[in-house]
Every structure is written in structure tokens, then in C-alpha cells.
Write a sequence for this structure.
């Protein structure tokens, strides 16, 4: 599945944003047109600048993530998994919804399965409620999918519109709001979270279409501005600028682990193969944050992989904006300039795809060499 196909089929506001989004904030169109050319540094895209290519498998469910409780033997298992391409973004929100389902008395011991962005946020929220938390996980950062994420704050590739129920949409919007607020409080060096401008570039005009005022994610589009005519440095005529938070996983995840340990948390490296393994744990409440692992562990057949690949170039500190065009996107981070644009559904291999890498590099090279200096 390429990004354009993904955006057409998936009911995400990001899809609407890229394909036919008329830029609005709340219910108002924002008609910003800076009169002069925006001076932005070009990204230097050359194969010689590559420092790594990484692959991750997004834990995707067409009907969206799972946050619910069930009894497994004599344990309460609270599920919190299946966030697709928005797991970092939504982590604090779905984890808050999951934490509300934990009914233990304060001070009780609670187990969390998984140590990605979702497991760590869940663990911290449980600690903030006074629980004594142990994380059980087969892999820890830097070896989780969450380390592979971009990670722009925006819920992208989270569900398919035709499969999402009203109850899910309610959870989704509530989770996005909670998470957005929490990340705002983490902006700064310690957590590697910052606001940056994003430029969405298109050959076609943005029309109202799916970006209608009723879109529940409008509230998260900050400072939307049209950059067109003489002010537009990009090689595509229709450009919208919007501010979003950017999260650097290699700073953010260790910082969360450190907070977890300072609050008395423990980590046990352990793989679980079946619910019977989970039933052996001594804690009577378990929160399942195993991401794609829930497919095998809890037999969730709807959960599938959407493979994503990022080619990372040497850091370019002068580049402090993100760009999105067609299937592709560029995120500038301190650990490198990320070039992405692949979404292969039901592909479970972590092997890099050399053809996809060549395509992504060539498309970014063409795009940035066409930018006005
Ligand atoms: C290329 C790419 C770009 C992305 N960009 C973004 C982005 O810009 N913004 C965004 O919000 N998201 C993005 N994502 C999506 C994001 O990475 C995922 O949604 C997120 O990492 C899911 O987090 P998680 O904690 O649920 O899972 P994971 O990070 O996979 O963590 C799962 C944890 O569970 C453990 N586990 C699994 N199975 C078992 C088992 N059987 N026994 C014991 N432990 C187990 C694992 O070891 C791990 O510790 C991107 C993903 C990719 C691949």
C-alpha cells in the first residue's frame, strides 16, 4: 500500500489534510499569506549522507486501537495496543483511558506488558496514581518499534473510516486531546519534544472536502497558514504551514524510563507466549501494551503490520522544518534527517527494501533541489 492509497483509504485527518484539506483552525479558514519568499534552507539529499535505514512495523487495526478490560483466569487484563502509525502521538491519551480501568487500591502492584511509548506512558500514569509498577517486556528501548517512529505528533494511519465505530471515535478524540496536552507539558530538552513548522505541499488546490469543519481533529492544527504565490519556496504550488510537536524517540524514551525508575519502577526482561504465561504473574492486574505482539500473544487476528522504512541522513542543524509531499515526508531531528514515505500493509519483515530506499531518496532529492534558495 503506498502512502497515497493509504491516505485515500484511511480515515485519518492527516489523510484528509494531505489529499483535500482546506486549512482551518476550529471552524474558521485561516487566510494567511506571507507576502515575501519564505527563506528556508534546502535539505541536502545525497546517498553519501545516509547514516542508516531503519524499518518498523506499525501495529495497525482497521477498527482502531484497543482499550478495554477483560478477565483472563483470575486476573484483570486491560488492553492498550494497536495504535498503527500514531502510537507515540496517542500514548498518553489511550494510557490514561486504560489507567482508568485499573480498579486496584492505591499502593497495589500492577504489571505492564511492553516497554514502548505506550507501555512507558501507561506505567508512569499508574505510578502517578500510586501503584507499584513492574514492566515485563521482551525488548527495551532502543529495540522497540517506538524507537523507529518519526515521531511527529499527529494521529496518522490509526484506523479505516469504514471500520471505525462511533464508540471508537469518541475514545480516539478523547485520547488525542489528553495526549496533546501532556506532550505540550513535555516540550523542552529533557524529553526531546519541540514545536516545529510543517509544510504540506501539493500539486492540487486544497478544497474543503474531508477537511470540513466537523473534523474532530481540527483543534490540533495550530497556526494554519497558506504559503502560496511569491512567498512559496517549494516546487509545488499549494502549500500549507501548520505547527506540530516533534518527538525525538532516542531522547524521549530513555527520559521516560529514567522517570519510571526514579518513581520506584522495576523492569523484567521476559517474553510471553500465551495468556497462560500472563496468568503466572503475581500481580492481579496486568495492562497489555505489547503493540504488534498482541497478535500472537492474545490472538488478535485483526491486528496486522504496516511496514514503514526511514532513511536517515547526517544531521543538518540548519533545517528546522518538516516537509510533506505526495507519499513522502522529511523530519529533521538531532540524530539525523529522516526521509520516509512507505506503508506496506500485511508485510511483517524487518528487512530493508532497497527499491523503496532508492525511490524515497530520489523523490526527496528532486523535491529539495527544486526549492527556491
Ligand atoms: C516508519 C515509522 C514511522 C512512524 N512515525 C510515527 C509518527 O510520526 N508519530 C507517531 O505517533 N507514531 C509513528 N509511528 C508509529 C509508532 O511507532 C507505533 O504506533 C508505536 O511505536 C507503538 O507503540 P507501542 O508501545 O504500542 O509498541 P512497541 O514500541 O512495539 O512496544 C511494544 C513492547 O511490547 C513488547 N512485547 C511485544 N510482544 C511481547 C511478548 N510477547 N512478550 C513480552 N513483551 C512483548 C516489546 O518488546 C516492546 O517492549 C511510526 C512507525 C513507523 C514504523
Amino acid at each position: 500500500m503506498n502512502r497515497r492509497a493509504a491516505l485515500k483509504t484511511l480515515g485519518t485527518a492527516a489523510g484528509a489534510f494531505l489529499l483535500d484539506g482546506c486549512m482551518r483552525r476550529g471552524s474558521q479558514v485561516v487566510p494567511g499569506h506571507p507576502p515575501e519568499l519564505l527563506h528556508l534552507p534546502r535539505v541536502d539529499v545525497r546517498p553519501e549522507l545516509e547514516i542508516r535505514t531503519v524499518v518498523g512495523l506499525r501495529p495497525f487495526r482497521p477498527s482502531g486501537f484497543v482499550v478495554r478490560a477483560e478477565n483472563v483466569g483470575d486476573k484483570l487484563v486491560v488492553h492498550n495496543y494497536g495504535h498503527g502509525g500514531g502510537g507515540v502521538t496517542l500514548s498518553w491519551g489511550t494510557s490514561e483511558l486504560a489507567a482508568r480501568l485499573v480498579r486496584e487500591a492505591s499502593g497495589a502492584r500492577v504489571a505492564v506488558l511492553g516497554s514502548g511509548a505506550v507501555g512507558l506512558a501507561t506505567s508512569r500514569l499508574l505510578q502517578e496514581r500510586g501503584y507499584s509498577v513492574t514492566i515485563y517486556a521482551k525488548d527495551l528501548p532502543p529495540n522497540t518499534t517506538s524507537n523507529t517512529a518519526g515521531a511527529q505528533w499527529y494521529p496518522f494511519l490509526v484506523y479505516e473510516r469504514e471500520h471505525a465505530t462511533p464508540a471508537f471515535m469518541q475514545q480516539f478524540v478523547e485520547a488525542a486531546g489528553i495526549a496533546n496536552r501532556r506532550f505540550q507539558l513535555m516540550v523542552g530538552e529533557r524529553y526531546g519534544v519541540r514545536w516545529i513548522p510543517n509544510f504540506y505541499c501539493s500539486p492540487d488546490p486544497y478544497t474543503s472536502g474531508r477537511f470540513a469543519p466537523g473534523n474532530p481533529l481540527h483543534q490540533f492544527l495550530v497556526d494554519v497558514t497558506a504559503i502560496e504565490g511569491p512567498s512559496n519556496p517549494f516546487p509545488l504550488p499549494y502549500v500549507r504551514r501548520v505547527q506540530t510537536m516533534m518527538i525525538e524517540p532516542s531522547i524521549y524514551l530513555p527520559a521516560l524510563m529514567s522517570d519510571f525508575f526514579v518513581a520506584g519502577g522495576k523492569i523484567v526482561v521476559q517474553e510471553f507466549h500465551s495468556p497462560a504465561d500472563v496468568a503466572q504473574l503475581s500481580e492481579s492486574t496486568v495492562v497489555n501494551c505489547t503493540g504488534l505482539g498482541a497478535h500472537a500473544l492474545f490472538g488478535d487476528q485483526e491486528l496486522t503490520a504496516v511496514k514503514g522504512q526511514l532513511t536517515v541522513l547526517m544531521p543538518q542543524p540548519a533545517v528546522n522544518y518538516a516537509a510533506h509531499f505526495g507519499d513522502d515526508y522529511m523530519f529533521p531531528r538531532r540524530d539525523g534527517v529522516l526521509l520516509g514515505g512507505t506503508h506496506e500493509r500485511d508485510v511483517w519483515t524487518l528487512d530493508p527494501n532497497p527499491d523503496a530506499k532508492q525511490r524515497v531518496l530520489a523523490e526527496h532529492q528532486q523535491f529539495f533541489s527544486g526549492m527556491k534558495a
Notes: The radius of gyration is 21 Å. The CA atoms of residues 201 and 325 lie 5 Å apart. Residues 166-184 form the longest helix (19 residues). The chain has one domain: 47-370.
